[in-house]
């Protein structure tokens, strides 16, 4: 049995900075770690210092041509090809070095689990799930999720489940393992007709001997805590129980929250806290407790991300924070100086009830339609009955 949690962290991870007013601002990581420390969550927890991913690490997922382009981009101008130098993915100084450190941090977290030193590990600076083999996309230069998974496969891990709760489809990770039966990718996201990147339909199920290992649950805009959790419980636990992963990897984007400016789901911080607890239970029941957690999206930098990911850290540590907990004054003072007149939350709750009614097999709402479509697309490929709510 490993230690309770390996937290991979160094302030150097803040150097993954796309600049100016870019939505993916590193202050969200700074505020998260400060809030966790202010609440005493990290007392007695020594952070594991990350090391940059090597070229060999990155080449398990990315092409040599793309790595060369990333290295050269800061010297080659504003338009470097491969998705670099765009509004979403601007070029910044030491881009390769900062991106390689994020990927290395996720490998470092994976190594803690594979070595047996920890059963759970986290890199909140990770979760850059949109980067493809040969191009940057969606604020992501190197796909640390895929890099860490590929590293674990090379170490001999035989089955890995990747579960993505970001509001955007986990397209880069799905693409990396779409024909690999050793990796099941599961993504719950806003419906692709209504949100970038426009992929993640229920009919995307894998190929070439990996049929059924890509699972997509596209949710209608406006889906809140109860609908999200209803869909999760109606689809995911049965599939993971059948797949029997050795490690559960989760991308924990905080952008399904109702305050997020880039999307249209309607979760609360209370719902996100409940989801992280659902993930913990899933890891215990389906993956022998082996859980690698990564960050991801989240663009309500002051009001949402720090609270959501502090709840994530608390859940990973089995030190759950009561929703009504007051946010410490020292964090409020620090955030106020940087928030530019944004109204800050005063507690770890949005005052919402995240409970849900389990799916019974009846389709009565748009969320139920999403459940039905996902189950019908994938369940038969696992010998499960899509119409039986007991599966």
UniProtKB/TrEMBL annotation:
The keyword Chaperone does not apply. This is Acetoin utilization protein AcuC. Pathway: Ketone degradation; acetoin degradation. Keywords: Acetoin catabolism. Residues 22-315 form the Histone deacetylase domain. It comes from Saccharopolyspora halophila. The keyword Lipid biosynthesis does not apply. InterPro entries: AcuC, HDACs, His_deacetylse_dom, His_deacetylse_dom_sf, Ureohydrolase_dom_sf. Belongs to the histone deacetylase family. Signal peptide: none annotated.
């Amino acid at each position: 049995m490993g230690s309770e949690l390996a937290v991979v962290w160094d302030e150097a991870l803040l150097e993954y900075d796309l600049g100016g007013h870019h939505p993916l601002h590193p202050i969200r990581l700074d505020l998260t770690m400060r809030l966790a420390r202010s609440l005493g969550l990290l007392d007695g927890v020594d952070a594991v210092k990350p090391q940059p991913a090597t070229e060999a690490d990155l080449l398990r997922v990315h092409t040599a041509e793309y790595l060369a382009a990333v290295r050269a981009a800061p010297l080659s101008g504003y338009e470097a090809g491969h998705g670099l130098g765009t509004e979403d993915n601007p070029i910044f100084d030491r881009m390769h070095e900062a991106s390689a450190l994020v990927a290395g941090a996720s490998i470092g977290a994976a190594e803690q689990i594979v070595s047996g030193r920890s059963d759970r590990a986290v890199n909140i600076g990770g979760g850059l799930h949109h980067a493809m083999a040969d191009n940057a996309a969606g604020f992501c230069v190197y796909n640390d999720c895929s890099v860490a998974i590929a590293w674990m496969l090379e170490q001999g891990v035989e089955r890995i489940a990747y579960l993505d709760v970001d509001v955007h489809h986990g397209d880069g990770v799905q693409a990396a393992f779409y024909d690999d039966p050793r990796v099941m990718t599961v993504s719950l996201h806003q419906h692709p007709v209504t949100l970038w990147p426009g992929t993640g339909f229920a009919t995307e199920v894998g190929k070439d001997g990996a049929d059924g290992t890509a699972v997509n649950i596209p949710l209608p805009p406006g889906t809140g805590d109860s609908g999200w959790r209803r869909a999760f419980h109606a689809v995911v636990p049965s599939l993971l129980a059948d797949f029997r992963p050795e490690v559960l990897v989760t991308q924990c984007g905080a952008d399904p929250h109702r305050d997020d400016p880039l999307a249209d789901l309607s979760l609360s911080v209370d719902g996100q806290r409940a989801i992280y607890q659902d993930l913990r239970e899933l890891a215990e029941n389906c993956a022998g407790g082996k859980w690698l957690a990564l960050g991801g999206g989240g663009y309500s930098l002051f009001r949402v991300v720090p609270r959501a990911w502090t709840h994530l850290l608390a859940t990973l540590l089995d030190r759950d924070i009561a929703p009504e907990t007051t946010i410490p004054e020292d964090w409020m003072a620090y955030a106020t100086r940087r928030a530019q007149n944004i109204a800050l939350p005063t507690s770890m709750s949005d005052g919402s009830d995240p409970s849900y009614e389990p799916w019974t097999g009846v389709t009565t709402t748009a969320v139920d339609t999403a459940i039905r479509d996902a189950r019908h697309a994938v369940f038969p490929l696992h010998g499960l009955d899509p119409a039986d709510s007991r599966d």
